[in-house]
Every structure is written in structure tokens, then in C-alpha cells.
Amino acid sequence: MEREDAAAEFFLHGFCPEQPVIKKTDRITAFGSCFAGNVSRYLHQRGYEVNAHHWKHANSDLIRIDEIMVHTPSLLAQFEWAFNGKPLSNVIVDNKSEELKSYHEEDEMRDIIVNSDVFIVTYGLTEAWYDKQEECYLWKFVPHKKLDSSRYVNKTIPYAENRENIEKIYRLIRDNRPDARIVFTLSPIPLLGTYSGKAIYPANEVSKSRLRVALDEFCSEWIDDKNLFYFPSYELVKYFLDAPWKDDNRHITEEAVHEIMTLFEANFCENDTQ
């Protein structure tokens, strides 16, 4: 790990484009787990055009990137809403439908996704709340204490379902933005808790492993798509960085974000001299 080429040789080899594929004029949408928020903020600070960062209020449910959409069903619901106009499912809290939190018109937020040139999608976990009445997963985060336990149940999304959802997300993007660049990542942020009834660390490993295998098999199947990539942020945090974690052992430090995103920018993004 002390070698100067350690990151390139042991982590990035085989995953990066031959030439940079992201320009500062590209419209970028990055969402998923809170790690996607780190990606988004870094690129915005570096002068890239990232989703709704030009808005004063960019924290609406429909474009929010921090811990609002972390599993494959919620991300799929977002893309189906944007590209196909499929309504998002109701979220019932305290016996009433929770209102959509937004400072902006839905069409304006839909346009951000529909007109993106680059999609950076970060998958986070495989435990999700399921609405037995509507027969669908919740597409947004709601504290479980606010949910009716007779209607909502926690499920662990199996490998096959995650793999299928990744495929659907990919096809939605390709059908609507055939030339878009797609970067899939796995969030290094671990579970805060688990409803599996088992210890949290093994539960987290199962969650991450299911997603990592699904992403690997999917990207391997579509290897001929030269605008589809996996960026190993998960592996870099877990095995490359010396001290990536804040005191809570769940979120990574600004220094770790900078180191990872410096690698991403160097390999995926055009700089001002290119």
C-alpha cells in the first residue's frame, strides 16, 4: 500500500475509462447514500455542473442525495418517476399520507434527471421497509417508530431482486439517455442498525456483499458498454485508506473523501488542461 501506484494497481485497474469521460459542461446527477452526497459536493466545489446545487434549497425528497434513497427499490422508483412518470407510492405516517417535501416544482426536478449527461448512482444497503397493503417498498426514509407495524414490515432484499433492479435502472437510463455515462458505486457507509435479528457487523457484510456481487455480475455482463463503469469507492475505504472514519465509525472524514475523489477526478474527469 506504500507504493505510489498502489491505488492504480490494486484498486482501479480494469475499472477506469481509457480517457476521461466527464467534462465540466456535463450535467451530473449523483444520488443514493450519503456517500453520494460527498461525491456531489466535491464535484460541485471543483466546478462541475451537479444536479440541483445551484438552487438555494436542494434538499427536496425528489432530488435529495443524502440517506434518502439507499437501496435498489427506492432508486428504481426515482428513475421510474423521472423517466416514465410513474407515481411514487404513498408513505403513511400517523395514519395519513406524508406530504412530499419539496421547494420546487416536480417538473423542474424531473428535468434535472431526464436531461443528465452523467449518472453517478451509489447503492447503500439491502434492508428496506415494505408496504404490505400496496405491495411495494418505501421509496424514502421514514423512522420506523412512525410506521404502522401491522402494515409495514422490514425485508432484506435478496441478491436476485437487487440484480434485477440494477438492470431496470440501467435500461431506463439507456432508453432515455443512450449516450449518458453511468458510474455505479457501492457506499462504504455501514448499517447503523439491523432488523435481521443478528449481530450488526455480519448483517452489514451480508448487505454490502449482496450488492457488490450484483454490481459485479451486471457490469461484467454489459462490459461492451464503454459508458458504463464501476468505481471501487467501497474497496478504497475498506482496504486502502489508513484512517478513513470519523469518531462515529460510520461516516468518512473530509480527508478520506478528498483522497477518494481526487482519484475519481484524475481517472474520470477532464481537467482544465485537457
Short summary:
This protein is α/β, with parallel strands linked by helices. 38% of the residues lie in helices and 14% in strands. Helix 2 (34-45) crosses helix 8 (254-268).
Account of the protein in words:
The protein is of the alpha/beta class and 274 residues long. 38% of the residues lie in helices and 14% in strands. The protein contains eight helices and ten strands. It has helices at residues 6-12, 34-45, 72-84, 106-114, 159-176, 200-221, 233-240, 254-268; strands spanning 27-31, 49-50, 92-93, 96-97, 118-123, 127-131, 136-137, 152-156, 181-186, 228-231. The strands form three sheets. Strands 2-1-5-9-10 form a five-stranded parallel sheet. Helix 5 packs across helix 6 (200-221). The radius of gyration is 18 Å and the shape is globular. The mean pLDDT is 86.
